[in-house]
Amino acid sequence: MATRAPDRPAAPAGVPTRRHPRRPGWSARLHRIDVAVSPYAYIAPFFLLFSAFGLFPLLYTAWVSLHEWTLLSDTQTFIGAENYATLLTDPYFWNATFNTLSIGIISTVPQLVLAIWLAHLLNRPLRAQTFFRITLLLPNVTSVVAVVVIFSQLFGRDFGLINWVLGLFGAGAIDWAAGTATSHVAISVMIMWRWTGYNALIYLAAMQAVPRELYEAATIDGASGLTQLRRITVPMIRPTIVFTVIVSTIGAMQILAEPLLFAATTSGSGGMVTGGPDRQFQTLALYVYEHGFTNFDFGYASAASWVMFVFVVIAAGVNYLFTRRMGGEIR
Amino acid sequence: MGILRPRLLAPAVAALLAASVAACGGDSGGGGGTTGSAEPGEKITLTVGLFGDFGFKPLYEEYKKTHPNIEITERVSEFADHHNNLIKRLATNAGTADIEAVEVGYISTFTATPDKFHNLKDYGLDARQSDYLDWKWQQGLSKDGSALLGLGTDVGGLAMCYRKDLFEKAGLPSDRDEVSALWPTWEQYIETGKKFAAANVAGAKFVDSPGEIFRAMVNQAPVGLYDAQDNIIVASNPEVKKAWDLSNQLSQNGLTAKLAAFSPPWNTGFAKGSFATIICPAWMTGYIQEQAKDASGKWDIAAVPGGAGNSGGSHLMLPKQGKHPKEAAELINWLTSKENQARVFKEEGTFPSIPALYDDPSIQSFTKPFFGDAPIGKIYSDAAKALKPQHLGPKEAEVRTAIGNGLGRVEQGKQTPDEAWAQVLKDVEKIK
User: Which residues form the signal peptide (chain B) (predicted)?
Assistant: First the structure.
């Protein structure tokens, strides 16, 4: 039944009926306003918060990036796009961009493949299902500081567990933090540790919506588990894959805590914001942090943030197109 | 894998800092702009912001006995975080402690902003001038010399700490006078290192890393990274280049353990005996004792190559944000008093900046069993007396980090010294 305005009360006897025609209009209008406005009022808190803590800083950062603006000085001079020009010619910036992409790829690709595989394993009748699912999520709820501190010890050069195990196979001690490739691998492992289970759970939720009959039919046709995964599961959960790829890409472009703390635990406080003495694992976010919060050059850091923002949008867009295509081919 | 999603970085960074600086306590100091003093009898809490352990804790307890209305809380964070946070808190006018410690590498940064701190002369502390080493006193003054902004705690006269047991294993002399005789110059120190390396002592290198050695060598020079007009002279000062070359010789001869100072693996290195020598400003003795708890009697202290120099040392400053400047100034005066500096030295190893103590018999005769009963009172008194002050510039720490990263690149074998030096000069040029 369609909603309708409450019946207007009958006019009490003796009251002049002169105002009568106005009252239903007023009440109905109020109701119409209520229906039209209330939904906006309900979602307003989000948009107010977003404006205050998302949109405003975004625009203000753009404004700051056009200035020579440091924390220590009270005067801010307008310098136009100079910060951007300096930034785009700074080899350290491009080094950070390379490191971000490298760590992003090394961490995201194996992580999502592993997550699909884990979800596939869990998407069958198992005892103690809840236990396995919670276990998957556990690394995600541990503090990033704890994860990095522990993994930095595992990746220690002299007394680290990983080098000890490699030593059993006759490999020499690897200085994980010193090399570009090795440090990227170490950081990627930390990221994978925290986020693989999270993505696996998202995939698992999507897989449970795939109709059983498809698998039954495939089994009758003699398709192996792997074929079923490739031919049925992946195409069916494609929208979820697109979602996780985009979210992971955005996350990977903004990695800060892992390299910062990894540097702090391996290079001391000196190389902390540079991601090692050779900037071998300084990511874009760390580059922004270096300029904004240790050199206090807010104008330059804001410019770097904006370029980083553009990179994130581009990377997410490219991955969106790529994953859509990939799904199409499998079909 | 959304690591940090917020559109703007600042809150994420703030949260991260809060997490990584776990020791950072509540912001009980600061905030308000009022500078009124408390009524007598009212309970007052003073916060003291420090980096590392200053050995003040027993002093607070004693101070509270004579000042029952004062409560003192200490908040300690990591060296670079402490100073960077102080800069932020001063700039945003919120969050400083009532008393803030500032290391000598940063002191010029803060004395350049005298409007953010109370002039300690207003609280009668200029009476302390006669107590202090003149250069230490000067470092705490504002640039024009009119205001007293910081009162010195300790100085870091240089010595060289070494592991007797490792020296014996390498067939080197282990008596401290004989060891001192091995290296009157840095070149001879490197030669000794080569002999040590030739003996192939398992699990041990000659020195921890080139960074602190470089700092010591530069500090021994009459002029360091800055000239008296606050210009960075890294490129033109031959003393800096010489220190750079010598430090890199350590790396290139494989004498370093590649352990960056103040990193956790470095701390482990003390406990495991991963290096045989380490540059040893007075405050380092306390650090070694803390880290190498099981190595009592194995460490000893010899003279530093290349003559006297200072490395480190701090001042206590009084930010204007604090609500109880009078009481805080009183506490600064007490913490830095002659008696307490002597006491902290005996407990913690940080060496007094009050020359009258240097000839004090209780200091002169002070030894420490941990260091094989080395006469550390005499060693550091002599070092402090021989000190020639050096002018330090406002971005001292940043310049040192840029050079330290260069030394690290050579040590890790990523660049030749020449390539690394070219990059250092470029990095230093960008520091404004």
Answer: 1-23
